[in-house]
């Protein structure tokens, strides 16, 4: 993938926007809770999947409500005692908070996912980013572009009073 170059405007350098600029708070599940507790938390938040972290806040992967229901219920395990840790999908897509929005958007499109966890370079969970948040950022930038072009090169005449 090609690195996005910084934009230049009248000598000032503007770096490419990073994921950190549009991150959303993460709602995660601890790896030591039971499947029932995880499912209850996900139901209360009205979400179908969630990042899973350890006590340090390190991202371990994600869990899916459907997958846990199939695996636990289908195999006759007790959801009150079955640890969520055994149902973590470790190959989940994620990105780093310092990656550019364009890089992450392309990664999400390639992986065909609508949301990914965002981590530090130490793999600590800091939030999530969705394809919708990226689209909103693009729409708001396009709405502002005509305003920027009107102000470029404008000067305000000074009035002299005698």
Overview of the structural elements:
With 162 residues, the protein is of the alpha/beta class. Helix content is 33%, strand content 20%. The protein contains four helices and eight strands. It has helices spanning 35-45, 65-74, 101-111, 131-151, and strands at residues 7-9, 12-14, 29-30, 49-53, 59-64, 94-96, 115-119, 125-130. The strands form three sheets. It has a three-stranded mixed β-sheet with strand order 3-4-5. The protein has a three-stranded mixed β-sheet with strand order 6-7-8. Helix 1 links the parallel strand 3 and strand 4 (49-53). The protein is elongated.
Mind sketching the topology for me?
Blueprint: E1 7-9, E2 12-14, E3 29-30, H1 35-45, E4 49-53, E5 59-64, H2 65-74, E6 94-96, H3 101-111, E7 115-119, E8 125-130, H4 131-151
Parallel strand pairs: 3-4, 6-7
Antiparallel strand pairs: 1-2, 4-5, 7-8
Short key terms for the protein model shown above:
CBS-domain, disordered N terminus, 3-stranded mixed beta sheet, alpha/beta, 162 residues
CATH class: Alpha Beta
- Rough outline: elongated
Task: List low-pLDDT spans.
Answer: 1-15, 154-162
Class by helix and strand content? alpha/beta
H-E order? EEEHEEHEHEEH
CATH architecture: Roll
Number of domains: 1
Mean pLDDT: 81
- The total count of strands amounts to 8
- What is the C-alpha radius of gyration, as a whole number of Å? 22 Å
SS summary, helix count:
4
Major sheet description: 3 strands, mixed
Residue share in helix? 25-40%
Spatial separation of the terminal alpha carbons? 62 Å
The CATH topology, please? CBS-domain
Which strand order does the major sheet show? 3-4-5
The share of residues in extended strands comes to 15-25%
């Amino acid at each position: 993938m090609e690195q996005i170059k910084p934009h230049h405007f009248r000598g000032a350098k503007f770096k490419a926007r990073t994921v950190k600029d549009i991150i959303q708070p993460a709602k995660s599940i601890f790896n030591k809770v039971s499947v029932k507790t995880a499912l209850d938390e996900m139901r209360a938040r009205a979400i179908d999947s969630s990042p899973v972290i350890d006590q340090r806040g390190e991202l371990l992967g994600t869990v899916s409500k459907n997958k846990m229901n199939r695996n636990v219920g289908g195999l006759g395990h007790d959801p009150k005692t079955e640890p969520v840790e055994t149902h973590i999908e470790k190959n989940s897509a994620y990105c780093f908070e310092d990656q550019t929005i364009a890089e992450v958007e392309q990664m999400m499109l390639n992986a065909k996912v609508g949301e990914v966890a965002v981590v530090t370079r130490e793999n600590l969970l800091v939030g999530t980013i969705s394809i919708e948040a990226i689209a909103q950022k693009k729409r708001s930038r396009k709405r502002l572009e005509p305003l920027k072009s009107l102000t470029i090169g404008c000067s305000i005449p000074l009035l002299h009073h005698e």
